[in-house]
Amino acid sequence: MLQADWYIIPPAVEGDYYRDLVRREPDRAQLLQRHTKNLTPVDGIPFENYDLVISFDAILEIPPGLPNIFAYYAQEHWDSLYVRSLQRPINGYDLFLAHMVDAPANLQKLPQSVAFPYLHDPEIIRPLFSPPRQEIAWLDWRTATTLANQPRDSSWSSETDAALLRAQETFGLPLRSGSTKNSKSYFIADEPSWGDAANYTRSLAECRYYIGVGRLGGAGQGLGEAAAVGCLCIGQSAQAYHRLICHPSCLCDDLFDLPATLRRLRQSPDLQREVLDHQDRHLCLHFRDRPLAALARAIALKKAGR
Q: Which residue from 41, 108, 120, 188 could staple onto 228, CB 3.0 to 4.6 Å apart?
């Protein structure tokens, strides 16, 4: 969507997320180093070639006076970086992109924190992943672990397998779910799961429904991915992305609402068409058009010296 060049740089900042990702597991740093290549030193990046530079976490020290827009996401909303950045971008950045959409929606000045979800565009993703649709529901793995009465961030277990089978019997519908088998925290395994993103997206796109209800954390990004590939999405009213995307009839307050909501959706082709139209319009508005307009405005403000 951004027609961007990508650079992987050496470790630069050791914040909360980095420590949890790298330091919590023995030998994690060596594992990542072993499987990472094509690093570019920061001073080897031709920043002058770009109108916009986005980094994951505030890993750059921005010299004053540059004409580019420098923006960053904080990868985890529990990171102190995220909390601090809601007040004001740090390290000379122009924009903090608040993926939990809990910052102001309108960009008024620079520097500023702005509500900015992870981007999705169905017009880009669906031509790439359009396998035959099947009468299957994708169950968010956190929903599956909730049904198994497991801690929110637990790995997949035999209890989760059993809960998935019980849910299939209850719904009368085959269920599919991503699992955390054979991996540790952050789904990092040795060997890494090369091609995992494409395989996940292809498998998700085969499903007619997506269910993300239960004891979930974060903004609910999985539903954004499901809506982008054209799944009919049932979400939870507490999740920021779900409220932005879901048809009102497909928002649940808790798991008790789920069976009846799924049954109504499966029984009505008219409702299915209405839900998909609603999802597509709101996905394009909130996850493509408005964020891109905010970036364009930021570039204009920077060039005007404001």
A: 120
